[in-house]
Amino acid sequence: CCNPLPGDTIVGYITRGRGISVHRADCPNLQGYLSNEPERIIEVSWNAQEQPGYQVEIEVKAIDRPRLTTDVMNTIADSRIPINSVYARANKQKMATINLTLEIPNVDHLQSILQKIKRVNNVMEVRRVLPT
Hints:
Alpha-Beta Plaits; 2 domains
C-alpha cells in the first residue's frame, strides 16, 4: 500500500493467510496494526543484493516554459533511469505539474534524481508521491 523502496525503513506485518506484507515504517496503515495487533509486527530488512527497479511516482511543480518537460525528461534520461509514464499539464497561471513514473533501484537513487530535477530551470518543487 505504501510502496517501500530499498533504503526506506521497513516493518513486516503477518497477515491472515497472505504471508507477510512489508510497509514503510511511516505507513499510516501500519500505525493501525501497531495499535490493534502489535504481536503481528515483525522486524524485516532489505536484501543487500541490488534488485531491479521499483516503480515510483514523482511530481514536479514548476513555472511553465517551452521545453520544460523535455528538460526534466532529459535530466532523468542522463541518469539512466527508465521512465514508464509521463503526464504533464499547465494551468492558466502558467504553473506546470509533471507526474512521472520511474523505475528506481533504491531510495538513494531516488534522492539523487530528485536533487537533479530540482536544478532544472523554473522547477520549484519535486517530491515522491506516496499512495493515499
